[in-house]
Amino acid sequence: xxxxxxxxxxxxxxxxxxxxxxxxxxxxxxxxxxxxxxxxxxxxxxxxxxxxxxxxxxxxxxxxxxxxxxxxxxxxxxxxxxxxxxxxxxxxxxxxxxxxxxxxxxxxxxxxxxxxxxxxxxxxxxxxxxxxxxxxxxxxxxxxxxxxxxxxxxxxxxxxxxxxxxxxxxxxxxxxxxxxxxxxxxxxxxxxxxxxxxxxxxxxxxxxxxxxxxxxxxxxxxxxxxxxxxxxxxxx
Length: 236
Known about the structure:
- Helix content is about 30%, strand content about 35%.
- It is built from 8 helices and 10 strands.
- The longest helix has 15 residues, at about 5-20.
- Keywords: DNA-binding, Transcription, Transcription regulation.
C-alpha cells in the first residue's frame, strides 16, 4: 500500500547496507533527493530515515546528512570480564594497542573516590586500534598495593595476562556502569572520532576473589563501532 512506502525505502537501504553495496561512512541522498526519487513527502522520507537510524543502519548528523554505519559492529560482552587481547582473537581483523601513559601518580579526588586508594595509583592510558582506527580509549587505575609494578611492555600486551599468570591474582567480578556522554578533549586527542560528538563510557570496578577492589577503568567507545550484549534469563 502507498502509505507504507517508507518501509520500501527502509528495506531498500537496509539491504544495500547489509550487502555491502553501501559502505560505512557513505552519505545517503538528501531528503529532497529521496523525495524526488520515490515521489513522496518529506514526512515519509524522515520516517524511513528515522527507522534506519533506530535500527543501527545510519547516523544522522545535524546539518550534514545521514551516513552509513558499520553494521559489522564488534560484540562487547557486558557481563563478562574480557581483555582486549582476548576479544581481538575472535575478530579476525588487524588490531593493536597504543600505550600513551603508564605511570605511578597521586590520585585526584575523582580517582580516590572511585578506587578508594589515597596515596598513589598506577595510571594507564591506551587506545585500541582496529582496522587502522582508534575506536576505544581505556583509562585504567590500579591499586599499587595489589599491583606493585607495571611497564609499557606489560600494558602494551595484556595486563590481565600479567596479573593472572605472573602475579597469580584471582580476578573474580566487576561492577559496570554504562552511559552515553559528550566527548571530551582527551577523546578527540586519542581517538578517531570523526564527526561523533558522543562516546559510550563503560565504568568498571574490578574485584579480586576476596572482594578487594583493585582496579577502576573508564573504557570510552566510539558510538558507531560497538554494541554491548548481555544474556538474561527470566526465572524463579
